[in-house]
Amino acid sequence: MSSARVAPTLAIVGATGAVGTVMIDIINNRDSVPWGEIRLIASQRSAGKKITVRGEDNTVVALAPEAFDGVDIALFDVPDEISAEWAPVAASRGAVAVDNSGAFRLDPEVPLVVPEVNPEKVHERPKGIIANPNCTTLSMMAALGALHREFGLRELVVSSYQAASGAGQDGIDRLYAELEAVAGKQLGVRAGDVAEALAAAGLPAETPFNAPLALNVVPWAGSRKDDGWTSEELKVRNESRKILGIPELKVSATCVRVPVLTTHSLAVHATFEREVSVEQAHKLFSDQPTIVLDDDHDNGVFPTPAAVVGGDPTHVGRVRQALDFPNTLDFFVCGDNLRKGAALNTYEIAETLAK
């Protein structure tokens, strides 16, 4: 007689943070979960706090080596330096560590996984660690993965329009403060008016965005890298290559911060090895369970951050045949950067492992 399968234990490291909170919300709203125990782990400061998970009070425990004893899968929603230190500890205690930080994304011994695109990679983890991609890359990956399987992606040009929450709580707080500072002001046409209003309101000159974000767009997201590129732009290039398995994929990205709280948007210009039509792309997108096609040019139907925020799917619209580029499509993508861009994909990796 075969023994009954024991349900795996899931741990969430950083359970009280912004992404960890969204993770718990996702778990609470699933129809069913495969876990026998869900263990919440955070800093010593948060230890002892009670959080409701699946209708039961769950006590947060402090991050320590013994916190991973008996854990099968540990989801990390913490800063890079904490993941770099503690994900190997979790793996050494027998857990598969699924990390949402940037600590391991480009490590050749750590798979970078999007379940809709490369789920088989969850089994190739010599370090016992799986990485979750950057939220900007993730927002377009379900759509690109579907197109690449059918037509063979060759070149990619992307412009991202990234929400303030991509810069963390500091980014959210700053945008709110700036909006309050300029609300009701009779601003003229001079470029300095917004900056003057922020200074008059007493806001510090230092900002997560390098320039005022209220009533503005800032063509810079991430940290400075060589030759004028930013870290966010290089993530789009390097992570797309790794996820799609195209090491020589030609990629160019420009990442822009916009005055939106949550949900990243991307304008994608994708060139393929084989001829592709708008009708074929529409069918592929419609067939994907994690994509919503919002594309009715005649009636002004297209995705926007305000309509997409809070939802799990990626929304795609403005699908067009590029006028002067053969085998090329242009389209617009919106995805909630705190859900699919972080918590949801991490959790879906865990579900893939649990299967």
TrEMBL record:
The keyword Magnesium does not apply. The active site is at C135, H264. Its EC number is 1.2.1.11. The lineage of its organism: Bacteria, Bacillati, Actinomycetota, Actinomycetes, Pseudonocardiales. Keywords: Amino-acid biosynthesis, Diaminopimelate biosynthesis, Lysine biosynthesis, Methionine biosynthesis, NADP, Oxidoreductase, Threonine biosynthesis. GO terms for molecular function: aspartate-semialdehyde dehydrogenase activity; NAD binding; NADP binding; protein dimerization activity. GO terms for biological process: 'de novo' L-methionine biosynthetic process; diaminopimelate biosynthetic process; isoleucine biosynthetic process; lysine biosynthetic process via diaminopimelate; threonine biosynthetic process. It catalyses: L-aspartate 4-semialdehyde + phosphate + NADP(+) = 4-phospho-L-aspartate + NADPH + H(+). CDD domains: ASADH_C_bac_euk_like (cd18131), VcASADH2_like_N (cd02316). This is Aspartate-semialdehyde dehydrogenase. Homodimer. Pathway: Amino-acid biosynthesis; L-methionine biosynthesis via de novo pathway; L-homoserine from L-aspartate: step 2/3; Amino-acid biosynthesis; L-lysine biosynthesis via DAP pathway; (S)-tetrahydrodipicolinate from L-aspartate: step 2/4; Amino-acid biosynthesis; L-threonine biosynthesis; L-threonine from L-aspartate: step 2/5. NADP(+) binds at T16, G17, A18, V19, R45, S46, S165, G166, N337. InterPro entries: Asp_semialdehyde_DH, Asp_semialdehyde_DH_beta, NAD(P)-bd_dom_sf, Semialdehyde_DH_NAD-bd, Semialdhyde_DH_dimer_dom. The keyword Oxidoreductase applies. Phosphate binds at R105. Catalyzes the NADPH-dependent formation of L-aspartate-semialdehyde (L-ASA) by the reductive dephosphorylation of L-aspartyl-4-phosphate. It comes from Saccharopolyspora aridisoli. Belongs to the aspartate-semialdehyde dehydrogenase family. Substrate binds at Q162, R257. It is an enzyme of class 1 (oxidoreductase). It comes from the Bacteria. PANTHER family: ASPARTATE-SEMIALDEHYDE DEHYDROGENASE (PTHR46278:SF2), DEHYDROGENASE, PUTATIVE-RELATED (PTHR46278). Residues 9-125 form the Semialdehyde dehydrogenase NAD-binding domain.
